[in-house]
């Protein structure tokens, strides 16, 4: 599904990722952990095609296509979704209208018919109930006046509607209390299936108590320095990141 | 916003705009009677004679003209206005068929003119049948037809061209003309009072809710002519009317002058809602051509608990100079101003409002959204004045500017004068750029760039669009999309 080979990447003028390799198969959940500044978010932004991150070496293939050649909106159409660390506010645009625009734009990209507003409403109501979120999320302007937790929940809700084949969660757990964390984790778990993969970027092990990863990778100074099972996350929790330098 | 991303937006818009056509920019080849260019007292006598006006109206015009000659051209706006040669303009142009015998019904209107309105998306017959909106169509200097007259007359509502009102209801015209905007009010109002040609007249009797939306569609067609329309709306006690106006003109390299005056009068508990979608030809991408739009619009809330609401969506004109205002004389009266002004290429807009609080417990709301694109300049200019006796007056003003690209400008000039300690005035202003973050967020969700910009701008204007009548809101959004990004489906 996703093949990252020898990737080097800059964020702005700074070299952040250095010779990073990662392979993700359909249905797998990979957790990327690491200290602040190790390049976790840069990796997410690189995959989503955010303009301030640029690959200088290496390759990324997604479902056989050269991902780095695609525009960000094309990557979205191919099924790449990034849950932002800091979701953005768009005043005056209600969430539902925003989502329908996105949903239909992605369908158009794939050469599929758009959906009308009645059909869309039925679909999103169903999703929002399953996620145990409140209906008013639909009417409110995108992220405007949302609490930190609401913004993160909205990211998970958008993910549920857009049904990506690769979802990247960039520190979706940061700043969440335990109840919000459970709702977010529950949303991710509901979406897990044999064709959908996740890359979960997190600083803390705590989210992984609720979303069980298949693999855990430790990122330090722009490279994956250690990979293992979910036990690795527990070791990190106990020992911190310091032992990696030793 | 990073330099790189800004440049991307800019180039794309410029490219789109260059390939875009102002779809209203066609010319209707029709025989018309146009008086020779030039302006002196004889010109005014000629206009007045053509319209078979009473002596008092000719005097009104001539007095205004004499005042105008003494006035300097205003230069206080943040506009770069090339000198206007008033002698090079023709002050009266009328389709020939209309000139001699005024058509009494739409069936008598020249088919070419009907076709013009059809092409503009204002099919007079269909509007009549389908939409239930009454239309007064003003073509150059004259009104060519007004729809739904019979139904309106049954409700006691008078909706006709200004010229007809002068003939059929001279006492009303004489009583109210110039009472809100006196001829010497300002340079362009004085010019208008001297040479005004046609426009709409509305009278809503006491305790009457106008049974349908009224609208006027202004079209400049002839070459080298100016359009100087005059609109007068009177709402008697406890009445309601919603009035809409739209404007377009052919694409030409020359600049054409449009100097209109609109006066509204709301008596006790009357409510007037006035909406404008202004789409005069804005000029080409190099700033050549376009309409100079100098307009004085003012409403008088004469009665207690009266209300006047202005909503405008301004996307056209090379230069816009326009401040729809409210004089809140009646106690508990209220005024509203909702505005979206979008400028692109070399367009310049200096627009805003004046809220003059004279009565007690008067209230005003001002929501202004300016969007600047390309090399354009967009200014909000607003005055809130509270008179000494206006106890507990309240104003809320919110001015937001949105910049797209690096070469445009947004400016805010708020003035407040409060002569009463109990007054409460609030002002909020923001200037923002479409942020890279917002754009990236949309892109990541799969929304292409042009659609994302349109979505963000639409959200920015939401507060104003929701004030427009439904049909117009759709039109306004579509117009904004075209002005922003060209003919993308």
Automatic annotation (TrEMBL), chain A:
SMART domains linked to this entry: AAA
Record SUPFAM superfamilies: P-loop containing nucleoside triphosphate hydrolases (SSF52540)
InterPro entries: AAA+_ATPase, ABC_transporter-like_ATP-bd, FeS-cluster_ATPase_SufC, P-loop_NTPase
Segments forming domain ABC transporter: 2-246
Protein's name according to its UniProt entry: ABC transporter ATP-binding protein
Classification via CDD domains: ABC_FeS_Assembly
Family classification: Belongs to the ABC transporter superfamily. Ycf16 family.
Keywords: ATP-binding, Nucleotide-binding
Transmembrane segment boundaries: none
Pfam families given in the database record: ABC_tran (PF00005)
CC per GO annotation: cytoplasm
Keyword Oxidoreductase among UniProt keywords: no
Keyword Iron listed: no
PANTHER family named in the record: ABC TRANSPORTER I FAMILY MEMBER 6, CHLOROPLASTIC
GO molecular function, one term: ATP hydrolysis activity
Organism expressing this protein natively: Marinicella pacifica
Gene this chain is encoded by: ynhD
Automatic annotation (TrEMBL), chain B:
Domain SUF system FeS cluster assembly SufBD N-terminal: residue ranges: 150-209
Domain SUF system FeS cluster assembly SufBD core: 218-460
Entry superkingdom: Bacteria
A GO biological process held by the record: iron-sulfur cluster assembly
Matching Pfam families: SUFBD_core, SufBD_N
Transmembrane regions: none
NCBIfam families associated with the record: PRK11814.1, sufB
Protein family according to the UniProt entry: Belongs to the iron-sulfur cluster assembly SufBD family.
Protein name (Swiss-Prot/TrEMBL): Fe-S cluster assembly protein SufB
Organism of this sequence: Marinicella pacifica
């Amino acid at each position: 599904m996703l093949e990252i080979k020898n990737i080097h990447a800059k964020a702005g003028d700074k070299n952040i990722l250095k010779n990073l390799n990662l392979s993700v198969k359909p249905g797998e959940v990979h957790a990327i952990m690491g200290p602040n500044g190790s390049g976790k978010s840069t990796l997410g932004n690189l995959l989503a095609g955010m303009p301030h991150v640029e690959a200088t070496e290496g390759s990324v293939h997604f479902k056989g296509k050269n991902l780095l050649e695609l525009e960000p909106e094309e990557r979205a159409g191919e099924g790449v979704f990034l849950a932002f660390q800091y979701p953005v506010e768009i005043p005056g645009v209600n969430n539902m209208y925003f989502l329908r625009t996105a949903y239909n734009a992605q369908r158009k990209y794939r050469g599929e018919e758009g959906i009308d507003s009645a059909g869309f409403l039925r679909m999103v109501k169903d999703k929002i109930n399953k996620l145990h979120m409140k209906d008013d999320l639909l009417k409110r302007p995108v992220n405007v006046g949302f609490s930190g937790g609401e913004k993160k929940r909205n990211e998970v809700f958008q993910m549920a509607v857009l049904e990506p084949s690769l979802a990247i969660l960039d520190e979706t757990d940061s700043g969440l209390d335990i109840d919000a964390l459970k709702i977010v984790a529950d949303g991710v778990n509901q979406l897990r299936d044999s064709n959908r993969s996740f890359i979960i970027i997190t600083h803390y092990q705590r989210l992984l108590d609720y979303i069980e990863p298949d693999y855990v990778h430790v990122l330090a100074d722009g490279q994956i320095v250690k990979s293992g099972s979910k036990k690795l996350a527990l070791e990190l929790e106990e020992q911190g990141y310091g032992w990696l330098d030793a | 916003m990073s330099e790189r991303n800004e440049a991307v937006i800019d180039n794309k818009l410029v490219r789109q705009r260059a390939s875009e056509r102002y779809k209203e920019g066609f010319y209707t080849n029709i025989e018309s009677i146009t008086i020779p260019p030039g302006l002196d007292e004889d010109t005014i006598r000629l206009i007045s004679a053509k319209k078979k006006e009473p002596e008092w109206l000719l005097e009104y015009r001539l007095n205004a003209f004499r005042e105008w000659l003494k006035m300097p051209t205003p230069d206080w706006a943040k506009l770069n206005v090339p000198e206007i040669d008033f002698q090079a303009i023709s002050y009266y142009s009328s389709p020939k068929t209309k000139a001699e015998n005024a058509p009494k019904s739409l069936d008598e209107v020249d088919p070419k003119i009907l076709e013009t309105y059809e092409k503009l998306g204002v099919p007079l017959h269909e509007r009549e049948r389908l939409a239930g909106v009454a239309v007064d169509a003003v073509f150059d200097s004259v009104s060519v037809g007004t729809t739904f007259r019979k139904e309106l007359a049954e409700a006691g509502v008078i909706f006709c061209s200004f010229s007809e009102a002068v003939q059929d209801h001279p006492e009303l015209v004489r009583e109210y003309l110039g009472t809100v905007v006196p001829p010497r009010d300002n340079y362009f109002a004085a010019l208008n009072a001297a040479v005004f040609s046609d426009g709409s007249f509305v009278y809503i009797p006491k305790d009457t809710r106008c049974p349908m939306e009224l609208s006027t569609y202004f079209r400049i067609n002839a070459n080298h002519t100016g359009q100087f329309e005059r609109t007068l709306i009177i709402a008697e006690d406890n009445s309601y009317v919603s009035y809409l106006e739209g404007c377009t003109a052919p694409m030409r390299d020359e600049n054409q002058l449009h100097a209109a005056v609109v006066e509204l009068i709301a008596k006790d508990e009357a409510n007037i809602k006035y909406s404008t979608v202004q789409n005069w030809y804005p000029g080409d991408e190099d700033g050549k051509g376009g309409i100079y739009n100098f307009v004085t619009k003012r409403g008088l809330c004469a009665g207690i608990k009266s209300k006047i609401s202005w909503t405008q969506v301004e996307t056209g004109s090379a230069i816009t100079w326009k401040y729809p205002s409210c004089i809140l004389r009646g106690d508990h009266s209220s005024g509203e101003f909702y505005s979206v002004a979008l400028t692109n290429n070399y367009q310049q807009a200096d627009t805003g409002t004046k809220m003059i609080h004279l009565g007690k417990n008067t209230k005003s709301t001002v929501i202004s959204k300016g969007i600047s694109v390309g090399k354009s300049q967009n200014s909000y200019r607003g005055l809130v004045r509270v008179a000494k006796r206006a106890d507990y007056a309240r104003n809320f003003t919110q001015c937001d500017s949105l910049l797209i690209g690096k070469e445009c400008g947004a400016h805010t000039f708020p003035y407040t004068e409060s002569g009463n300690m109990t007054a409460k005035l609030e002002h909020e202003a923001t200037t923002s750029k479409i942020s890279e973050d917002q754009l990236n967020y949309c892109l990541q969700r799969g929304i292409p760039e042009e659609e994302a910009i349109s979505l963000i701008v639409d959200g920015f204007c939401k507060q104003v669009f929701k004030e427009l009548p439904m049909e117009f809101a759709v039109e306004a959004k579509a117009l904004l999309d075209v002005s922003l990004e060209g003919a993308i489906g």
